Amino acid sequence: MRASLTSRLQTSSAQITKVYGMLLLGLMVAMCLSVTTLVGINALHNTHQQAHNVLKGLRDTYVLNRDDWYWWRVGSPVDSRSTFIRVTTETPKKDTVSTRHTKDFVKKTADAKKIFGDLYFSQDAGFYYYMTTTQKVQDGKQTVSAKYQLWMSLTNAVNLLLTLLRIISGLMLLFFLLGTGFIYGLAKRLNRPLVNLTQYTKVLNDNNWSQAVDSLPVPTKPTEVRELSIEFNQLLHSINQQAENDRQFVSNVSHELKTPIAGIRGHVELIQRHGKRDPKMVPDALAVIDRESLRMQRMIESLLNLSHASQLTIDRQPTDLVPLVAKVVGDYQRQIAQDIMLVADDSVRRRVNSATVEQIFLALLNNAGKYSPPTGIITVRVTNKEISVSDVGPGISNGDKARVFERFYRGSQTGANSTVKGTGLGLAIVKQLVALNHGDIQILDNQPTGSRFLMHFPTDS
Ligand code: ADP
């Protein structure tokens, strides 16, 4: 349970949501702070401006006694619930006038602490602004002086700020929850194909690979998962193909070996039963046993070659193919009826492994000898333009061209009913050896008749 919770928290959707949530939270806190700071600064600035204007008004209208005060009050729009003004005249006589509630407010500011500039805070009065200025006027011989004091409560502004803060935080919380929920959903949706892929792979691992050829669902998006699924399907397909080939191979081997064994066993029994009575049939039966055992021997050798070639790692060296192929042709000419014509340049250098190239040419010459008439000419070309083995036999049909490199496949014209002996393994070995040399081989039609095995090997450089 615990492990599954931990692994759930490690999923990419959880990770994406976490990162996004933290980003969103950071962004919202930053926004919240900047909005409230801006609004706060603006409110302070306005208050400062208002206070300044009020004091300026008092000074400009020379409020120096009760009459001046009365007329100033009549014309001034000051809100006496939040702005408190006191005018104190020292000369010619001491007098104090103030707006309503000033006394009460000033009492509340007894424990006030200065925050900065003209901004103060007291437990009872809250935040407020305090400014003061004096005025001195020479009236004939006497000097008239007055002190103006102003307190401006910021309670309304602070309340407004708090309300704003609450609204913004509420909205942000809402956006945060909606945003993270949305992102979580989106991340889950995007990851679903990946999760499906994983589950599917698990099912495949638990059950049987071959049950699911190419059947992995391929989503249209996201692109990465789509590509992964396609690649996975291809991998699946080639694994299944390989498994199928292996099954086919084993069944072919057993089938191919069964036939000569049955022939051998049959003739051994024949000798055992009738050998004494009819000694004349013994040499014929022995000939069949000899032929079938030879066939088995050839097939086993080919199989060993094939398995050897699949495990072989070869050393490739820059090699001149002309003398190498000329020697193979010279040696092989003695074994077949057809004439072998070698068309060669002075030198054709390729990076190959000479032993395996000899094997390739030997196998191709062997087939050319087997499948073409004794009078036909076999042409071996080793030029810088073309490396090939051609004959004037029956050729290979287009349908067979794609298949003759498969193990045990024997062409339709030369198949099971053919008098030409073979195992269907020669070209499979050739193909493997060519691939080991990093080359390729293809079959073309020879003109006017026959087949042409065309090869490419990497150049020397
Ligand atoms: P095998 O010769 O033992 O049957 P290979 O793998 O060498 O097996 O060849 C596979 C098949 O390709 C042959 O059965 C034959 O049908 C066809 N083939 C190969 N070489 C030639 C050729 N030179 N001319 C015509 N058919 C050929």
If you had to describe this structure to a student in words, what would you say it looks like?
This protein is α+β, with helices and mostly antiparallel strands and 461 residues long. The chain is built from eleven helices and 13 strands. The chain has helices at residues 2-9, 12-60, 66-75, 102-108, 155-206, 223-274, 281-311, 321-333, 354-371, 398-401, 426-436; strands spanning 83-91, 95-98, 113-116, 119-122, 126-139, 142-153, 317-320, 339-344, 349-352, 377-382, 387-390, 440-445, 451-456. The strands form three sheets. The chain has a six-stranded antiparallel sheet with strand order 2-1-6-5-4-3, sandwiched between helices. A five-stranded mixed sheet has the order 8-10-11-13-12, with helices on one face. Helix 8 (321-333) packs across helix 9 (354-371). The mean pLDDT is 87. Adenosine-5'-diphosphate (ADP) binds next to helix 9 and helix 11.
Question: Can you describe this structure in just a few lines?
Answer:
With 461 residues, this protein is an alpha+beta fold. It contains 11 helices and 13 strands.
Task: Give the overall average pLDDT.
Answer: 87
| Spatial sequence of strands, sheet with the most strands | 2-1-6-5-4-3
What small molecules does the structure contain? adenosine-5'-diphosphate
Instruction: Please report which band the strand proportion falls in: under 5%, 5-15%, 15-25%, 25-35%, 35-45% or over 45%.
Output: 15-25%
Low-confidence segments, ≥5 residues, pLDDT <50?
none
Radius of gyration based on Cα positions: 52 Å
Oligomer: single chain
Shape: rod-shaped
User: How much helix is in the residues?
Assistant: 55-70%
Please give the largest β-sheet: 6 strands, antiparallel
| Terminal CA distance | 62 Å
Q: Which class do the helix and strand fractions yield?
A: alpha+beta
Question: What is the succession of H and E elements?
Answer: HHHEEHEEEEHHHEHEEHEEHHEE
